[in-house]
Fold this protein.
Amino acid sequence: MEKPESQVDKREIKLAKMPPGMEGQGFFATTLDSVIGLARSNSMWPLPFATSCCGIEFMATMGANYDLARFGSERMSFSPRQADLLMVMGTIAKKMAPILRQVYEQMAEPKWVIAVGACATSGGIFDSYSVLQGIDRIIPVDVYVPGCAPRPEQILDGVMRIQDLVKNESLRRRNQPEYKQLLASYGIE
Amino acid sequence: MALNNDTVISRLNETFGGKILSTELSADFLNVEVAADALKEIAKFLRNDPEMSFIYLTDICGVHMPEQKDRELGVVYHLHNLVANYRLRVKTWLPVTNPEVDSVTDIWTGANWMERETYDFFGVIFTGHPNLKRILNVDHMEMFPLRKEFPLEDSSREDKDDRFFGR
C-alpha cells in the first residue's frame, strides 16, 4: 500500500499500486475483485512450455539482466496443476499438439495462456504439413508476443499484459457464458 | 583387408548376375542398382559374406521421381564396412502403384526405425517389418508428405495471399 509522502523510503521501494477504495484511520476498504486481482497478478506461476529458440530467449528473460522475478513470476511451476500462466515458446509440431492440449487441460482455473514468438502464434516460417499453424488452433490464447524470436523485453511486455488482464478481469470471468462458449469451441470440458 | 569398387562389383556380379542392374560411381562412392525382388538376398550377402562384411547400415532413405515410369519410388541403402572403411550405396526402384520391398530388419536390426521413416514419408511397404507404422508424423496423417504430389505447405492456412508468393 502507498504510504503518506512523509514516510516514503528514500530508496523508493516499488510496491504494487493500491486499488481504488475507501481509506480512513486504521482501515481500508475496497472490492474483493481488485484485492484478489492484485494478489494474483503479482504472483503468477508460469509454466514454461519451451520447445525451441524462443525458449532460449525466455531463459534470458528469467536471468538476472531482465529478471522476470521483478514481476512476481520467479517461481516456475513445472507441474501444470499449480501453474497460472502457460507460456508456449517455440514451434509446436502437430505431433506435440495433443500433449500441449493435455497440459492446458491439466491446469486449474484461473489460467492464462501466452503464445511467445511467431511459431507459437501462427506457425511462423514453418508453413509445413508437420507444424501446427498457431497454438490457438487447439487452445485459447490470451496474449500473443510477436517476434522471431522476441527479445526478452517483448516477453516481459507480454507478461505485463497478462498481469493487466489478471488484475482487471472479473473474478467470475471463468463462469461467463462467453468463456464457456470459447472453451466449448475448442472442445475442452 | 582393403576393399575396392572392382572387387565389390565382380563379387556381386558373379553371385547375383542379372539382379545387379547397373553400377556407377557418384561422389566417390559406388552405387549399385539392384532388382527389388533380390534386394534381401543381396543385403544378406553384403552383410554376412566375410569379404563384404557391411556390418553397419548407415541409413535408409527414399526418393520419389514421378517422371520415371514404373520405377517412381527409390529406396537407398547406405552401407558401411567398418573394418575396411568402405562405403556402398545400394538402390532399388519400385513402381508407385505397388511399392513393396522386403524388409532388412532381420539383417540389420537398426533398419527398423529407418524403414518406418521411409514408410512414413514415401509410403514404401517393407514386407516382413515387425511394426510398420508411422514414426515421425501424426498417426492419423493420410498422405506421404515427401511424395511430390502432396503439397508441403499446411493446407489449413487461409491467410496466405497467393499474389505475394508468386502464384
The interface with chain B takes residues 94-95, 122-123, 127-131, 133, 137 of chain A (CB under 8 Å). The helical segments of chain A are 32-41, 53-62, 97-106, 117-122, 152-168, 177-185.
